[in-house]
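On clarity, I found the account of how folds are encoded harder to follow than it need be. For illustration, here is how one protein appears when written out as sequence plus structure tokens.
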Amino acid sequence: MRLAGLRHGRGNAAVTTAPSPGDTDTGTPATGPEPAEKSVTCGFPTSPIVGLTTVPSDAPTPDGRADRARAHEAAAEVLADRGDWRRAYQHLKAAVSIVRDERTAPASVPDQLRLEVDRLRRERAEAREQSRRDSLTATWNRRYLDERLGTLRGDQGSAPADAPVCVALADVDHFKAVNDDHGHALGDEVLRRLVDLMSEGLPEDGFCARYGGEEFALVLPGLEPADAVRVCEEARARVDAHPWHEAAADLRVTVSVGVACLDDGDRPGSPGLDAADALLYVAKRAGRNAVAYRDVADGTVRLAGPAAARRGIEAAARRAFPSS
């Protein structure tokens, strides 16, 4: 028995119609009552599908549900062969819904359907991962950064609101000159190497994300502000001490960093990043290759490590925080 196609039924049910056994190609019209309609309830409207050979059963038994799952699987296969991925995915989801019915006997689930479901899950997981990765450096991207910052701040109830979370913005000093003098291919390699250097020594659940261009974010959950400053200063020192001359004789790469806590600043959608960005500006204005932070004891903006003794930090801080 060959399925003539799927056509719209009432509501959201996809209806399959099977021709009567008396219908042949001899040219003699079949007589007798109209064939009964077989219904496949898949929860969404569908257009006619030609080329199916599976006739589902309406029996409220495990075998009947397995038949419906096979019918949806067959529809998905036909549609996928034609490149109609959206409708194929809908039918596969309907099949999965039937399979998940606790009354469906596991032995009645087609092996091919199990494989297709596993494949679909893997592909969706891979697509989700790729959508959150930066294509150049393979580190996390801005989308993942925004999601994680919201979660870490407790906006979704998954973390205590008072949990210490610090964030840093790091910018490559004079990166345009690197591209101009050595070419974009070497500039790309510099960015990839920077991710490796800055990702060392991060706390558990900490990560590096590309914020945009030559700017990166370091998220440092669980660290007190002083420890976060120390981690960022160590990252800055690693970048400064790296043998960049091995890639190009006169190449030197440094970064400037601003460190803040997530509750520093109030720009919607970017908790803490506004304060870190302002402190990054201070580090740049104070001579670059430095880490700027705000002392929690008295609120004074300072530079970490060897840059602490530099002059001009006060003027740079006043320009970055005019209302302070």
Notes: DSSP finds nine helices and nine strands in the chain. The chain has a mean pLDDT of 76. The radius of gyration is 31 Å.
